[in-house]
Amino acid sequence: MKEEVRHTTVGLITLIVLVLVGSVSFSSSQIEAPTGVTIKAVFNQIDGLSKGDDVRMGGVIIGEVTNLTLGDNYTAVVLLRIDHKIPLPNDTSAAIHTDGLFGRKYITLEPGGDEEYLAGGDEISMTQDSVVVQDLLELIIGEAKSKRAKK
Question: Is residue 10 part of a domain?
Fold first, then answer.
């Protein structure tokens, strides 16, 4: 009987400690609401880009891709959440790049020289589509085959 009480007590203490640890870990990790402005960019091809991918400027992460939809004329409309502290000139351009040869895609922004800045809901008009690595490899192989055939 004494051993049963001891096992029950140890079990209750363990349960209480687990509940306390769980509540502390969940309460200390406060979820921050996303801040910043939402900017739209329209691309013809966004192969490999997905929601949550980085938006970078000069190699520094300044935001993320928040939504991908199909727009007018079958274009890809990409919504970007940019840190509100970073002013983007109206003539900023956006390009889809790959992190390494087969890495994740991200969007890189190149600021222009305009003295007026994009506001929330504005659109980046100058965009460069994603390069599909498979198409690039097929082009290189095709060039090599044609040079080989000429010899």
Answer: yes
pLDDT tens per residue, range 45-80 = 898 899 999 999 999 999 999 999 999 889 999 999
Query: Which residue do the tokens 């390494």 mark?
Result: 100
Residue located via tokens 């687990």? 18
- Whole-model pTM? 0.67
66 and 121 inside one domain = yes
Domain assignment present for residue 100? The answer is yes
Helix or strand holding residue 43 (H, E): strand 37-43
Which neighbouring-strand residues pair with 54?
64
Domain enclosing residue 128, as ranges: 37-138
CA-derived radius of gyration, the chain: 25
Q: How far apart are CA 132 and CA 115, in angstroms?
A: 35
110 and 62 share one domain: yes
